[in-house]
């Protein structure tokens, strides 16, 4: 997703030189957030609304930075977030 200085995901959850999607997910989950994303490889952001995360639209080709902690995954790019949302599963 496209990002800007006002941040589509409002809360910075952490920076890590070995960031992975799983690390960012854990940071978001610990804060009870349902949406999270990684930007520029090392910065994790979180929020509660996928609608807000998507407000600036998709950024085709924007996520070009591999995650430092897992080079097989993309961790956003410059003003681009790799965004994820937790799914709520029913018991059964």
Shape, please?
globular
Q: What is the spatial order of strands in the main beta sheet?
A: 1-3-2-6
Domains counted in the coordinates: how many? 1
Mean pLDDT: 92
Uncertain residue ranges: none
N to C succession of SSEs: EHEEHEEE
Explain the layout of strands and helices.
Blueprint: E1 11-15, H1 21-30, E2 35-39, E3 43-47, H2 50-53, E4 66-67, E5 70-74, E6 81-85
Antiparallel strand pairs: 1-3, 2-3, 2-6, 4-5
Question: If you had to describe this structure to a student in words, what would you say it looks like?
Answer:
The protein has 92 residues and is an alpha+beta fold. It has one domain (11-85). It is 15% helix and 29% strand. It contains two helices and six strands. It has helices at 21-30, 50-53; strands at 11-15, 35-39, 43-47, 66-67, 70-74, 81-85. The strands form two sheets. Strands 1-3-2-6 form a four-stranded antiparallel β-sheet, with helices on one face. A two-stranded antiparallel sheet has the order 4-5. Strand 2 (35-39) and strand 3 (43-47) form a beta hairpin. It is globular. The termini are far apart. The mean pLDDT is 92.
């Amino acid at each position: 997703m496209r990002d800007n200085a006002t941040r589509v995901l409002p809360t910075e959850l952490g920076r890590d030189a070995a960031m992975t999607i799983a690390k960012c997910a854990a940071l978001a989950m610990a804060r009870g957030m349902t949406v999270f994303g990684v930007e520029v490889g090392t910065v994790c952001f979180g929020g509660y609304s996928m609608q807000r995360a998507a407000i600036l639209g998709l950024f085709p080709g924007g996520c070009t930075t591999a995650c430092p902690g897992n080079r097989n995954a993309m961790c956003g790019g410059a003003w681009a977030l790799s965004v994820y949302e937790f799914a709520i599963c029913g018991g059964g």
